[in-house]
Amino acid sequence: MPTLTVIVLARDNADEIAACLESVAWADERVVLLDARSRDATGEIARRLGARVVEHPFAHFAAQREFGLSLPRSEWLFYVDSDERGTPALGEEIRRVIAEERAVGWWVPRRNWIWGREIRHGGWYPDYQLRLLKLGHAHYDLTREVHEVVILDGPAGHLQEPLIHYNYRSLGQFIAKQRQYVALEAGIRHKQGLRPKPWTFVTQPLREFKRRYFTLQGYKDGLQGLLLCALVAYYYGFLVTWRLAALWRRQR
């Protein structure tokens, strides 16, 4: 049977690293790729649970995952974030597909829990992520510093069993993460030479809200769905455009 390593990206995640590692105990090897800026007991807890801990300076998410490709002592790698949980059913499906070797990469669906409840619409489900990779057949696009892009040299498949993602426990946590993502996304667009037009400050957030709330049926998640669609439209439509314009002004 092909062997499998699970790598968990972490930084100051002492409150959730144990639950994450225990949920993927079906892997042959568990590695915690720890941001060198981490200051809590994440590494100590991971070692106590039998995981190998590797500290590495953080440049951006794509670079961190690219470095992670060099760590496994196995043929396959499955990436998990500290706020995600595997299931026994997912482990069984992964074992089956890597034995069949019909693809060199596999997309896994995610069930997203936001503010205490599962969100099923507005683009939050199935929310496929390319996380199961055959080593030697994948690398990351280093120009995509956030919401990373994997480049495969062969076919990809889609798993049926989901990862469970507890990504935003509070509104404050959601806002803090979006601010981080906005800065990274604006920087990416600036490097690509994209310049915002005056009307995009209005059209971008409206287009994003329409896509999530109506096209992707965010309205089916009630008031919480409305709030999520509005916030994502504000951050990724308006604020990214605002930050991008500020970068061009500073350059001039």
Short overview:
With 252 residues, the protein is an alpha/beta fold. The chain contains 7 helices and 13 strands. The chain folds into 2 domains: 4-167, Alpha-Beta Complex (Spore Coat Polysaccharide Biosynthesis Protein SpsA, Chain A), CATH 3.90.550.10; 170-251, no CATH class.
Can you walk me through this structure?
With 252 residues, the chain is α/β, with parallel strands linked by helices. It has two domains: 4-167, Spore Coat Polysaccharide Biosynthesis Protein SpsA, Chain A; 170-251, no CATH class. It has seven helices and 13 strands. The protein has helices spanning 17-23, 42-48, 61-68, 88-100, 171-191, 200-215, 222-251, and strands spanning 4-10, 29-35, 52-56, 76-81, 84-85, 105-108, 110-114, 117-119, 129-134, 138-140, 150-152, 156-158, 163-168. The strands form three sheets. A seven-stranded mixed beta sheet has the order 3-2-1-4-9-6-12, sandwiched between helices. It has a four-stranded mixed beta sheet with strand order 5-13-7-8. A two-stranded antiparallel ribbon has the order 10-11. Strand 1, helix 1 and strand 2 (29-35) form a beta-alpha-beta unit. The protein is globular and about 55 Å long.
